[in-house]
Every structure is written in structure tokens, then in C-alpha cells.
Amino acid sequence: MTPGPFKIFEIRASGSYAAVCLAQRTNDPLGRHVALKVLRATLIDNPQVLTRTRDEARVLSKLNHPNILKVEQLLGIQRRPVMVMEWIDGLSAREILTFSPKGLPVAVALEIASRTSSALSAAYGARDDNGHPLRILHRDIKPGNLLLSTHGQVKVIDFGLSRGDYYERETSTISTLVGSLGYMAPERFMGSQKASPSIDVYSVGITLAELLCGRPPVLPRSPDAHPDALRRYLTYVAPDLSSSCRDPLITLLSEMCSADPSARPSHEETQRRLREIQVAGEMSTDLTAFVSRVVKPRDRDRPRVEPKAHPAWEDIQFLEDPNAPLPNRLVSDPSPGPVSDTQTNDRVREFLNSAQWETRKRELKWLLAVHPNWSSEPFLEVLQRGTQPWWRFWSRSASESEMALALEVLKHRLSPRLLDMARGLTDHPNARVATAASVLIERYKGEH
């Protein structure tokens, strides 16, 4: 039997979105372990999930920081996105809290928060190969997304809900409420469109409070009720800590978890002030002792289930056995195989030439999600048809709604040629076309 691309050793996590497993490439002479994040079969028809998966891989591939989990590549196997990541032995802060229900040692909690702030600062300040700022926000910081390795490393994981200004980003989720309740900044529930690093600072503050107390603060979203509730909670934080350390810690937490985004410190300031508290309290920043005492034994002794006995095995067995039966959802929808750039453009062009394509947005999303190598050319042709001279009566002219949608799609494929065409449409009599062209021009300026 021909082996599959991977050997699966353990399924570490499985949820409604994806499964994460420990694996090894069958053709790797070094036998290195890798982590695989495999999208559930039931979601392969969801274009938003597909594009978000690709976005997460792109985000992590652009970031190189010791406290951010690295992604090696994104594979497509049997139409299923498979993210190949570095493997880290260890436990999440959420798992560690189950063994420390009253909270972690102050020095450990502060060091985890400090390294997390360092990672988030690097993510927001990172630049692409052309020097453009990426401005990546995680948007889902919580104990479950902070990994403490058996070597004392802290890793921020799961950028699946992140957003950024990088060129290849496909999903647009600025106005979508995503994240974990209890860790989300209050302004995110108010329909705020101005996402900034302060939302991640707030989540780090809530997480740090939970690491110190064993439970997170339950804070109201109302700006009026929020301060009193936070003040009451902070009375329980590190009561045995000396006042020279506790007072600045309480002040820092009150600012990080403030209902007012402008009152929160930056990631850099947060890290500096945490370090000052550690120095004042002569706290060790080396997590080795804690890891040896708590993490390693718990990781070694945790129950392990054979992959084939795990409920998620049916969903990921194709990685190990290419002849394995597909989940029922995929039986009638076989893999289309590799598609060239020319074939992709032809398929997109065929769709754009079909009747009332602009009213079938969901189909268009799915088409572009399945064929991520689509280019701007078919959509530029739509714009050309919309502005063609009157005497080309034999060629079907594009409607204003088709032009507007083409412009909206092309914000993911910016180019100088597109910029020139958009400039000629800012005075278009149709408001939607003119607005879409103006937005596209502003986006281009922001990235260049």
C-alpha cells in the first residue's frame, strides 16, 4: 500500500473548526515532528472559512518571533487545507490552570504576559518583503491560545481570527464580531470599526488577571459599570505581594483592562512596566524551574489516545492512508486536482460571462476560495466592458452593478493598472461605482 504524506502519532485537539495532530512526514529523512492543523470536512464548502485558513497561514509565514508559533507551509490534500506548523511539546496556559486553580506563581504569570506582549508587538509592527506594515491583530488572546513548552518557551498560537493589512489577505472581517467572550474589549461590542492594538492589550490584561487569580474577571460592557466591577476584582489579585510590586501591578492591570481604549498602554509599555515589576520584586524571568516542576510531569502523564481510536480519526485518516474512504460529506464531491493559472482564469471568466453573476455573490466567493490563484485579469475585463465606447455595440457591456462588484473584489489584487482604471471611475454617475473606485484608490495609497 502506498503510504500517505504523513504518519499520525496523536490527535491533540479537535473542534468544530479543525483538528490538530502530531505527525511526521513520511519522506523526511530526519524524522522531524510537525503539527498539522486540518480543516474539518464539513467546512470545505464554506468560502469564508477557506479564505480565513489561508489568511492564518499567510500571517504566520510572515512572522518570525520566538514567541509566535511558526508555520512551514499550507498544503491542499484532497481539497482539504492542511497547515504544517512547528511542533511544540507542552501545555496551554488553560491546561496549566486546571492544575493550579488558584492561579500561577506571580513571576510565571508576569513572564508569560511579558512574552505575549512582545509577540503581539512584533506582529503589529511586522512588515512584508516590500516594507509595507502588516498591522496584524490577534483578536483572540486567552489562556487557551498561549502555549508553554517543556523547554520554557511561550508561544502565541491560533491566528485564525486575526486581521491585518497585508496584501494577500482575502477575508474582510473588520466589522465582524469575532473572538472569545470575556476576553474581548468592550468597544468591540459597540460596532467600532477602528480596531487597534489596544484590543489585544485588553485581552492580555484579562488573561494576566486570570493567570494570577485562577479565574478571569467578569466585567460589564457598559463603560459606566465597568470600572467599579474591575476595581472589585483587582482587590483579589496577588494579595501576598509586597506593596512595592503589587501597587504598580494593580495600576497596570486597571489600565490594560480599562473600558477606555485610549487609557490602555501599548504592548511596548506593557512589557516595560511588567519588567520593572519583576526587577523590583527580584522575580526570575526563567520559566525552567516551573516547567520542570509542573509542565513536564503533566505533559508526560496526560492520557493519550491512539489516533485510530480518536473520534476525529475518520476526518484526518486521509493524511496517512490515501485510499481511506472519504467522510460522507466528500463522497459525491471528489478532488478536482491541480488547476493551472490559465484554467483558473478561464473558469472565473466563464462565471463573469454568465447571466446575472453579480447577484450570485456566494457562488463567486466559493469559486475564488477554491481557486486562490485567480488573477485580476477577468475582473479588469469587466471594467473595460463597462467603459467601452458606444460604437462597440457588438460586445456586451457590463452593467454598473457588475462594475461595482468587480471593483470590490479587486481590492485583493491591487496593481498600478487597476489604479489607473479606478481613477477614471471616481466621477462615475453611479454612486456605488464611484465609491468603490475611491475606496480602492485609498487602499492602494495605504499599502504603498
Structural class: alpha+beta
Number of helices: 16
**Helix proportion of residues, in percent?**
40-55%
The overall average pLDDT, rounded, is 84
- Overall number of strands: 8
**CATH classification class of the largest domain:** Mainly Alpha
User: How many independent structural domains?
Assistant: 3
Largest sheet: 5 strands, antiparallel
Q: What overall geometry do the principal axes of the alpha carbons give? A: globular
How are helices and strands ordered from N to C?
Answer: EEEHEEEHHEEHHHHHHHHHHHHH
Please list the strands of the largest sheet in the order they lie side by side. 1-2-3-5-4
In CATH, the homologous superfamily of the largest domain goes by the name Transferase(Phosphotransferase) domain 1
Q: In percent terms, what proportion of residues is strand?
A: 5-15%
CATH architecture assignment name of the largest domain: Orthogonal Bundle
Q: How many angstroms does the end-to-end distance come to?
A: 52 Å
CATH topology of the largest domain: the name is Transferase(Phosphotransferase), domain 1
